Amino acid sequence: MYPSIMDLNKPKLAEAIRLWLEEDIGTGDVTTLSTIPADSVTTGIIHVKEDGVLAGLPVAEEVFRIVDPRLTFEARAVEGGPLRKGDTIAFVSGSTRSILLGERLALNLLQRLSGIATRTRAFVDALDGLPARLVDTRKTTPGHRMLEKYAVRVGGGHNHRFGLYDAVMIKDNHIKGAGGIAQAVQAARAQIPHTMKIEVEVESFPQLEEALSAGADIIMLDNMSVENMAQAVRRIRAAAPHVVVEASGNVNLHTVREIASSGVDVISVGRLTYSVNALDISLDLGERKESSL
């Protein structure tokens, strides 16, 4: 079962939507207020213009609910399901003014989240049959992390740490600042609760040995060749079978399966969120434009 709006923090989502609406509407939609009669009612048809994976449907519905609780939203597609060019995603009916007030924000969110889910699904499909888990990173749009990580889950991927506060990840600059891997791990272990894990990023075999000796719970192999990754995995399995092995750096659809074949447990991919193309989704009032079909 794919995630739903119940997987999101609804109070935070509602607060964010209100801020985004305020950013767009400001003191009022001068075009709509001056051209559309107050008693005008209609139906907006939300549809897709290219193939992809749907994400953000309950978020778009929440946008229209906040704009005007009297609007009715009828889904015609399934969150996490495949979309084909021309598919109808949903109907939204009621006040024409209200539909136009929420149109842009609802579409922006649908397009962005569906783009993320579509790319994620492509990576997941590329890993079919292999046990490696695909995860995202913190390379998200400021203010949209909750939704973008949600879209990764809708696409079939998994989430890495949500922020700086929920896991220790010791990277190159931490290692430099602390004076070494052992010093960084020891200092972190002394500060964090026993329930929190420590991940260490390594770029070489000497660093790998340091991370193992320091007692890292997770070791990230950063920008290593597949051959070196496979060798590193064998070394970790022999020395500390409980350690989770993550691969990161320059992962794309052409390399992800080969990277997974090295035996790593997790593959983190920043491009799931930071450079994704939005899916082309539109809303037409009353009936679709011929050019949209």
Walkthrough of the structure:
The protein folds into 2 domains: 5-124 and 276-292, Aldehyde Oxidoreductase, domain 3, CATH 3.90.1170.20; 167-272, TIM Barrel. Helices cover 41% and strands 18% of the residues. The protein has 10 helices and 12 strands. It has helices at 10-25, 30-35, 57-67, 96-126, 145-154, 172-178, 181-191, 205-214, 226-239, 256-260, and strands at 41-48, 52-53, 72-75, 82-83, 88-95, 133-135, 168-170, 198-202, 218-222, 244-248, 266-268, 281-285. A 6-stranded parallel beta sheet has the order 6-11-10-9-8-7. It has a 4-stranded antiparallel beta sheet with strand order 3-5-1-12, covered by helices on one side. Helix 10 links the parallel strand 10 and strand 11. Helix 3 packs antiparallel against helix 4, helix 6 packs across helix 7 (181-191) and helix 7 (181-191) runs parallel beside helix 8. The protein is elongated. It starts with 9 loop residues before the first helix and ends in an 8-residue tail after the last strand. The mean pLDDT is 96.
Number of helices: 10
Q: Strand fraction band?
A: 15-25%
Biggest sheet descriptor: 6 strands, parallel
Oligomeric assembly: single chain
Helicity range: 40-55%
Q: Going across the biggest sheet, name each strand in turn.
A: 6-11-10-9-8-7
What form results from the Cα inertia axes? Answer: elongated
SSE ordering: HHEEHEEEHEHEHHEHEHEHEE
Class derived from helix and strand content: alpha/beta
> How many separate domains make up the residues?
2
**Which regions contain 5 or more consecutive residues with pLDDT less than 50?**
none
What is the architecture of the largest domain at the second tier of CATH? Alpha-Beta Complex
